[in-house]
Write a structure and sequence with these properties.
single chain, 2 domains, elongated, 0% strand
Length: 232
């Protein structure tokens, strides 16, 4: 049964989402619709301190390149997770609108072809009635009529989606924090190896191991916007 087109409800504060503002960093500006640069997100390449000699300056620049690449990769991973959540919220709003007018679940032609192995048997000699009689079709048709619009169910969908992506964000934070600590430990050993021998005797080694000379990649643990936290 055909229904008139109904415009799905837009989540509140949708204009503040990453998808609408296009301030994500998942690809270079010339390959995507985003005009965001790493510098606009606070991701900058640090210059070596002026009190370092040429050898230590080269070591600092090489290590800063590694830190800069890790910062970019971490930001891309966070942006992809946020975009995935925003798209799922939009799909939930679309499904809620479809169910509110009691529209059936769309059954594509590819679903009918799936269990009939048309790719292995290009010549099908069965009757048309038997052609659509497969397990997948029966399951999908059996679901029809059972889904009814319920506001409480919609809220439950959004809560489940938020819980799922909060769990994924915690996993990303833990992994990125482990990567940052691992990189810091490796760079610290390399940095100590390249320090002059007279540094340890002069007592300057403590200052050369400070954050000014050996910075650590910081992890943004709270990167959700208000729309992703409360999309209703």
């Amino acid at each position: 049964m055909l229904h008139e087109f109904v415009q799905p409800k837009v989540p509140k504060d949708f204009a503040e989402t990453l998808m609408a503002k296009k301030n994500y960093l998942i690809a270079p500006p010339y390959k995507s619709f985003s005009t965001t640069t790493p510098a606009s997100l606070g991701i900058k390449r640090l210059n070596p301190p002026l009190d370092l000699d040429s050898h230590l300056s080269d070591v600092f620049c090489r290590q800063e390149d590694e830190r800069y690449r890790m910062k970019l990769r971490h930001q891309v991973e966070r942006d992809k997770l946020i975009l995935s959540h925003e798209q799922e919220v939009l799909r939930l709003y679309g499904n809620a609108t479809r169910l509110s007018i009691h529209q059936d679940i769309p059954l594509s032609y590819c679903s009918l072809l799936k269990d009939n192995e048309v790719y292995n048997n290009p010549i099908i000699q069965e009757r048309t009635s038997a052609f659509i009689n497969n397990d997948y079709t029966n399951i999908e048709l059996g679901k029809r009529g059972k889904n009814r619009w319920n506001g409480r169910s919609f809220i439950k969908w959004l809560e489940d989606s938020n819980l799922k992506y909060k769990r994924l964000s915690c996993e990303i934070n833990q992994r990125q924090d482990l990567e940052a600590n691992t990189l810091y430990s490796m760079q610290r050993m390399v940095w100590i190896k390249h320090l002059p021998k007279e540094t340890s005797s002069s007592g300057r080694i403590h200052s050369l191991l400070s954050e000014r000379y050996l910075p650590k990649v910081e992890i943004n643990t709270n990167f959700w916007t208000e729309c992703e936290i409360n999309p209703i």
